[in-house]
Specification:
By secondary structure, the chain is mostly helical. The protein is built from three helices and two strands; from the N terminus they run ββααα. Strand 1 (about 1-5) and strand 2 (about 5-10) form a beta hairpin.
Length: about 80
């Protein structure tokens, strides 16, 4: 955290935008089909936007990794 004018902030506006995304749908390891569907819904919403900010793209990448990990565990290619 940085300190500006006596007020603590969490950094730049870009960091604030990313933190807002994290607060809206905190990424967690996917442990059930319900978690999987909820995460996929957020991914679909981001993709449907078309153009993404850097922060949205980073967030999408994190969610994509969680989905990949779940699919690799429960739906491995033979």
């Amino acid at each position: 955290m940085t300190q500006t004018n006596g007020k603590k902030t969490l950094g730049s506006l870009k960091n604030q935008a990313y933190l807002k995304l994290l607060q809206t749908f905190p990424p967690r390891p996917i442990a059930s089909e319900e978690d999987y569907q909820a995460t996929q819904k957020v991914v679909d919403k981001l993709i449907d936007q078309g153009s993404l900010t850097t922060e949205e793209q980073d967030y999408l990448n994190v969610l994509g990794c969680l989905i990949r990990d779940y699919e690799d565990l429960y739906f491995p290619f033979n």
